[in-house]
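Reopening this one. Same input as before:
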Amino acid sequence: LENNPVVLKPDAGSHGKNIKLAEGQQQLLAILSEIGPSIINPIGVLAQELVHKWFFDLRIIVAKERGKEAYCYPTAMARTGLNDFRTNAYLGNMVFGIKLPQKIRENAVKCAESIAKDCEAWVIALDAMIDFGEEIPIDKHIISEFEKLAPLFNEIQRIKSQKVNKENFCSWNKKLEEAFQSYANSKAYCNIKEEIEKSVKNMEHRVVFHEANSCPDFWEQTRLAAGIDLAKQLLLCAESLLNKQAYIST
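Same output, byte for byte:
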């Protein structure tokens, strides 16, 4: 990496926290000297080359049930960030459902299969970035569209922060879905979504898969933005394995 920028993060998950950018070798050494292993992050640190991804990255879901081919969902969740290089949804960044080009879907399947190896059923969430090769400024029009969206997205965040239990889950979920629908139906949302989809299509040959999650989180965001019910998919995968066990038993 010579003296190029490096991103450092906890090796077993971060929720967007404790992710640091080292601009050069001296800063890298300084950051590493402060990092140590913990119970949830036993190795201590993961280092990645900084990818110039503009203002978004992608959460792509690939799944395989026993006896079936691996399948990449056609819609991904684009996670955006205007303030710094981190686009984690946990940090409160806005999310968008975007259509994936077939080429990226095919590459996502290959990537997920290389991780899953011989496993018969699985669900993997791949984090991917479009490598623009250089830092791309965000124009005033896009920033303006995000500003228009802020009140609608803040309402989603407000509902998500409410206490949820078995008794109020249905009413809470209804409010969440209605708030997200208002957000997704807005002109500003459609304009940003269109800009992201255009960039992804034009740069489909520059996709970089940089992280994989075997336990996809933020199911509300994935379900609402990308239209993917992860709970259902996980159950289908488990059911396919149970059917195998039943067959063996008989």
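So the earlier flakiness isn't reproducible anymore. For the record, Confidence is low (pLDDT under 50) at residues 85-91.
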